[in-house]
Amino acid sequence: MQMETITIKEWNIFLALNSSGFSLGFQQGKTPNYKDKHFWEVEFSYCIHHKAVLSKTIPDGRSFCYGKLYDLFFLRGGYGYQRIITHKPYYGGVQIRYFFSAGVSICFGLPTYLEIQKRVLIDSVHYTFYTETERYDPENPEHNVANIYGAAQFFDRFQKIAVRPGFYGKTGLNFDFSNNPLKMQVLEVGVSMDMVFPFIKQMAFNKTKPVYFYGYIAYSFGKKKPRYNF
Description:
CATH architecture of the domain at 7-52 and 69-111 and 158-226: Beta Barrel
Strand order of the largest sheet: 1-2-3-6-7-11-12-13
Structural class: mainly beta
Radius of gyration: 24 Å
Low-confidence stretches: none
Distance between the termini: 18 Å
Largest sheet: 8 strands, antiparallel, barrel
């Protein structure tokens, strides 16, 4: 019978798709015994409001989400704990762990800028049209669907970025199906939440969300360091 490999360290990179966007992250941890793992993680995630729908009013204009005030990006850093529920048999199979992690985050709110179509009277009958890049303001009567030419250039949005401190938490299950005892191939499912202060309103004509909840699925790969090298 093959002996189980005892490891002392693990690291992995993961990519996750969630109900509001996606995220990319890195984890590194220690396994003080054969069941437990303590790890640190860094993660960058993107969140868009579920009511933000791309539309286009002018054929040659850029698509935009009417009513969207911000796209949100979260930079997370925190501590996590995992515990093995089911060990992988020596002949192969799946190792199942439950986990939770929590920590601090910084939220970056990228404001929406649009190209607004305007007109100037040439004479008593004729007009000429032009566009101006302006930050979307739902209270501005010119910022209605009829006057929006399209979304502004992406880098025009890097003005007046909202920065908020906050915290996050995650929990769920992961399934390691790697055939190599020193490598990780993990499918993870779970739920996560973010909260920032003060709150950021993502969509006009909607209530401000104090907490952002997501369900997600992630794939990760990495390596393990054995306690003994033979």
